[in-house]
Specification:
three-stranded antiparallel sheet; alpha+beta; binds zinc ion; 5 strands
Amino acid sequence: MSHREKDIHGKYIGNAIGYCHSEVHPGALNREIAYKHKCLAKKCSNLEKYDEESWRKKEKCRKRR
Ligand SMILES: [Zn+2]
């Protein structure tokens, strides 16, 4: 992951973990941008995850019975 990509604001970032193919704001996403942009929360259908692991939050396993 050394190559740099344009993020949704047109800036180049080198630590992208995904890419949003939305027509409104296409571009690469790093953790910070993904968080601010709330791609996951918005359930962006155009979101491409490069690496599932990076997107996984540290969620506590709730025991449900
Ligand atoms: Zn998006």
